[in-house]
Recover the amino acids of this structure.
């Protein structure tokens, strides 16, 4: 049935468009990149409800993160850490399954300043990125692109099975037009710079 | 899908006169959405963005066979199974056979208009499969047994009090809970559903031909979960959703969000290329894309209406429309409502089935000004009206009245005489007794005629 459907649809598409002149592609959408991508990212991300934390340069980043997570309300006891987070960026807290973790710790592949987006590969893993109520994402400052287009084009040749662009906390205004956070995904999304 | 478009007039009357809450809720929500869109447009060179988006979409639609072929090849190379469905029945059959193949008992769904269009939920439920709509608004409507009334905010016609009552009845939540408490109650039920379900079903905002990427935009995270946790992900995608490449997608993700809610981008975007392949990836073992026609090639073949296929389903035209604001989407009787529904439905379903939607507009043009892909909706409405007139689909009284008007207007003597009579009718009581004019006057206050015709005024010199 499926193969037959394909032929029928393609024939109908060809017939429908045969006598219509082709419209040329207009080329790239011209947007002005910000001068300082990290500054622009921080501004955009926080407007959308995301939070930004900077590791204490005097301490090892993993140790700083441990203190940061303990200081959150409610205090994070167990964490789920993505397999691609390097050892020096891992907090010294007990590892638990993502569904029960107080926080998920991820590594961003890159970030985009114009939309305030973190680019997260599916190998990160998805459960870590989505199930805990708090999501802390390490962002390498050198990997913040001025434009989303640049971040996506860089990946074009070697795309993972899936990517998530996270640009703030999970939110909804479906009940009484009041914004609530943490509806399904993390209610707090924190970009951490080491 | 069974439509109730033919009852548009009586359903509108019922909504406007019956439940004042609907009008209040819809008007409030759409005005708020519309203001956010204006802010979102003001932050960028919106005119240039919209012209660009119109160009990319028109380019893709005029080369659709090429891009469909490219997308299919790329999806398959990514390990995604591609299915084609010429109509709603075939689309349901594809999904049902996949559900049977995987012995699916429970399905989580992301908000998708095309799955509403193909009536998927009743088919799944008839097969004994549990279906969870996971978008909060959709979940509310599923509990109520209602259809979405807005593309973006499916439950905008419901008040907080109605949701409080609903959740107290169904989820045992405390009466009078605030939105936060209510959302938490829904989250508890749906979180279990995400973890237990074998299949996730979504639509697709875009399909990138060059990379075989299904792109999905949202704010809650439910679509990310739907495409990530279950073993099987099925994306049901209309054939008009294609864009050529990732650079184009980057533009459309931003423009769609700005048009819909004024955001620079949705809080979450899922870009799905295929099933999990890497040992560290915990995503689905299988990804299926169902490419659905279901009337789209009819729209594509239409000399004027084809441009409506550029639609991004952002809802901006609904929010801007003074007619939609009065009733919400339910009056329209089909899944695509508001201005875009009024031009798209005649193409998808046939003009006869979609009557009288092309007439459900004041032609004010607010929809076209709001549209991120510059669909000339008012022009299309006029074109559909012309076709309806030609095919004899307009009410006989209207046809008779227009015929009468034409015969008077083409006879100068008769026209002058009619003008003199009309200008001296005076009391609206007489007008109310007339056919056509009487129906119009029943809902409105008629202006008082001046007592003199335009020609008389002209001769005297208009002040």
């Amino acid at each position: 049935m499926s193969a037959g459907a394909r032929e029928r649809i393609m024939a109908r598409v060809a017939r429908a468009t045969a006598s219509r002149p082709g419209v040329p592609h207009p080329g790239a959408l011209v947007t002005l990149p910000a001068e300082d991508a990290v500054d622009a990212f921080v501004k955009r991300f926080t407007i959308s409800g995301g939070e930004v934390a900077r590791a204490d340069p005097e301490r090892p980043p993993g140790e700083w993160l441990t203190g940061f997570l303990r200081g959150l309300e409610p205090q994070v006891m167990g964490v789920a850490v993505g397999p691609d987070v390097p050892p020096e960026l891992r907090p010294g807290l007990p590892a638990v399954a993502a569904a029960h973790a107080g926080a998920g710790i991820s590594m961003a592949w890159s970030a985009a300043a114009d939309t305030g987006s973190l680019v997260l590969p599916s190998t990160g893993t998805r459960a870590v990125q989505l199930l805990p109520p708090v999501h802390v994402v390490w962002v390498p400052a050198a990997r913040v692109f001025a434009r989303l287009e640049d971040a996506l084009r860089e990946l074009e040749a070697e795309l993972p099975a899936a990517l998530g662009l996270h640009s703030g906390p999970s939110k909804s205004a479906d009940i009484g037009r009041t914004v609530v956070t943490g509806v399904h995904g993390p209610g707090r999304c924190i970009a951490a710079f080491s | 899908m069974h439509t109730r478009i033919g009852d548009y007039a009586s359903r509108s009357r019922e909504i406007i006169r019956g439940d004042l809450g609907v009008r209040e809720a819809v008007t409030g929500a759409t005005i708020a959405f519309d203001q956010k869109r204006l802010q979102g447009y003001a932050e960028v060179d919106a005119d240039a963005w919209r012209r660009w988006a119109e160009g990319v979409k028109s380019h893709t639609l005029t080369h659709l066979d090429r891009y469909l072929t490219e997308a299919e090849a790329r999806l398959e190379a990514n390990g995604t199974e591609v299915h084609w469905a010429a109509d709603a029945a075939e689309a349901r059959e594809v999904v049902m056979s996949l559900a049977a193949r995987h012995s699916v008992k429970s399905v989580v769904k992301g908000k998708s208009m095309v799955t509403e269009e193909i009536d998927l939920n009743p088919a799944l439920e008839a097969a004994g499969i549990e279906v969870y709509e996971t978008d909060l608004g959709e979940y509310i409507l599923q509990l109520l047994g209602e259809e979405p009334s807005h593309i973006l905010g499916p439950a905008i016609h419901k008040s907080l009090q109605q949701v409080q009552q609903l959740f107290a009845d169904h989820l045992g939540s405390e009466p009078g809970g605030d939105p936060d408490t209510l959302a938490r109650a829904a989250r508890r039920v749906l979180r279990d559903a995400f973890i237990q379900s074998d299949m996730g079903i979504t639509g697709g905002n875009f399909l990138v031909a060059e990379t075989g990427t299904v792109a999905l935009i949202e704010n809650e995270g439910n679509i990310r979960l739907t495409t990530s946790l279950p073993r099987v992900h099925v994306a049901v995608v209309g054939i008009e959703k294609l864009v050529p490449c990732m650079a184009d997608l980057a533009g459309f993700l931003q423009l769609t969000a700005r048009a819909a809610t004024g955001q620079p981008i949705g809080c979450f975007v899922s870009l799905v290329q295929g099933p999990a392949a890497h040992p560290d990836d915990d995503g689905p073992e299988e990804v299926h894309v169902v490419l659905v026609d279901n009337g789209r090639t009819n729209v594509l073949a239409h000399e004027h209406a084809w441009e409506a296929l550029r639609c991004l389903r952002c809802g901006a035209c609904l929010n801007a429309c003074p007619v939609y604001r009065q009733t919400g989407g339910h009056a329209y009787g089909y899944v695509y409502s508001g201005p875009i529904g009024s031009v798209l439905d005649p193409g998808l379903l046939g003009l006869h089935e979609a009557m009288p939607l092309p007439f459900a507009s004041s032609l004010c043009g607010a929809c076209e000004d709001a549209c991120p892909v510059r669909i000339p909706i008012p022009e299309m409405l006029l074109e559909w009206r012309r076709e309806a007139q030609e095919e004899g689909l307009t009410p006989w009284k209207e046809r008779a009245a227009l015929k009468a008007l034409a015969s008077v207007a083409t006879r100068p003597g008769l026209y002058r005489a009619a003008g003199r009579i009309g200008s001296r009718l005076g009391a609206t009581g007489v007008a109310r007794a007339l056919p056509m004019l009487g129906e119009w006057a029943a809902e409105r206050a008629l202006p008082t005629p001046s007592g003199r015709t335009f020609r008389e005024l002209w001769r005297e010199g208009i002040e």
